[in-house]
Amino acid sequence: MAEILVVIEHRKQNLADVSLEMLTKGRQLADQAGDELVAAVIGKDTDSYIPRLAKWADKVLICNSDKLGQSLSEPYQKVLSLIIEERKPKLVLIGHSSFGMDLAPALAVEVGAPLATDCTNIAVENGIITITRSIYSGKVNAVYSLTPSETVILTSRPGEFPVEEGQQRENIEEIDYPIEGDINYKRLEGYIEPEVSEIDITQARVLVSVGRGIKDKANIELAEELAKVLGGVVACSRPVVDYGWLPSCHQVGLSGKTVNPKLYLALGISGAFQHMVGLRGSEMIIAINKDSEAPIFTIADYGIVDDIFKVVPILIQKINDLKLKN
Known about the structure:
The structure is a single chain. The chain is an alpha/beta fold. The chain folds into two domains: 3-174, Rossmann fold, CATH 3.40.50; 201-325, TPP-binding domain (Rossmann fold). It has helices at 17-33, 50-53, 73-87, 98-111, 220-230, 238-242, 273-276, 308-325, and strands spanning 3-8, 10-11, 14-15, 36-43, 59-64, 91-95, 115-125, 128-135, 140-145, 152-156, 172-174, 206-210, 233-236, 263-267, 284-289, 302-305. It is elongated.
């Protein structure tokens, strides 16, 4: 039986969301082809991850070592190269995070496997692996068929696949750490954490996002009020950050963050392709804009062609009325 291997990324005792997305996609691909899904978790004190990972993977490979506490790509690479050499998975899935971008190219060179990065979709049909990538700064989605190879390594952009948990499985295998000595030419000095006041829009289930149409920094209070009654947070397009109305941690798009909330409410956002690239994973998109030709309407599930300063206060009032009734 062929295998699909997912490399699990974690930091400070937290699993990376992109790894859970890779597991979900890997589970779908494995079920379609009758393959086995294997999760490889490498690091220090990783036992706590096993119950969560076993909801997707048929087998969880664990490599625990005090030398893996810094989450550097080099020791991961050495462990993974041995796993790939022994198990010969047909697919190796890695998140296209800063860590994955550091790990995947070197790993591909070491094991002699082809590599495709920043994939927005992955499919296998009749034994042929196809991937989708955004090119020309997100203006075009290109589909590529990969030349058949024993093992192919792919990285996928965060936020492209929704997380869907499956049934619990219990098949665990421990791996010995194979490297003698320390890796001295690179070390982790520490993590630069966001300021306490900053938010993580990638974790929000509801986003009320503002664009140039908000007109003034003072008007963002209206979006904040709507976000509050919806139980969400405020996001924005790049012009709002460029004007200094919101910090960059709120920005969605190619030069900001990729998000996949249950609801993305776009207020006064025209929909430049750089922005829309970052929100395509949203379950529902509602756009409010005076311009009926605004590109945002091409991806919106629902659209309102009107002035946001007329529509939003009515929305807030209606939502509050419904809450009072319930």
